[in-house]
Specification:
Layout lengths: L5 H28 L4 H13 L7 H22 L3 H55 L1
Helix pairs in contact: 2-3, 2-4, 3-4
């Protein structure tokens, strides 16, 4: 007489599924690390193009140049199939390019603010002169 244990069969099926799932994650997870970071490189290139005006800003120039170097290095790593390093460098390039852009924009806004402050001082002096001339005429 064979006794069929429904629970044991169910448990064996779960273990089999768990094992298969774990194996799939390990196989495909290993492949994920070796996938070329093409999208990261595209994003870095776009960030550099977007930050082009940063070359003119003293504060932003270093970050822009660093981003350019990191992108070049990322492209070299891609050629040698060092995809993880290439991805990291591309992400650093993106971050540095975006920082350069923000710094350049901040510098431009600071210059505009200083110009407006100068214009306000000039108008105040002009207003004071007109006010003094008006009180002298009375």
């Amino acid at each position: 007489m064979i006794i069929y244990n429904k629970g044991a069969s169910f448990m064996a099926g779960k273990i089999s599924i768990l094992f298969t799932g774990t194996l799939a994650v390990l196989i495909f997870g290993g492949c994920a690390g070796s996938t070329p970071p093409v999208q990261d490189l595209k994003i870095a290139k776009m960030a550099l193009l977007d930050a082009e005006e940063a070359k003119e800003s003293k504060r932003a120039r270093d970050y822009f140049q660093r981003a350019q170097k990191e992108l070049i290095e990322a492209q070299k790593k891609m050629e040698t199939k060092a995809y993880e390093e290439a991805g990291e460098l591309a992400q650093k390039a993106t971050a540095d390019a975006r920082l350069a852009k923000v710094l350049a924009e901040n510098d431009a806004l600071q210059q505009e603010a200083e110009a407006l402050e100068g214009e306000i001082r000039r108008l105040r002096r002009e207003f004071t002169t007109i006010e003094e001339e008006g009180s002298d005429a009375r």
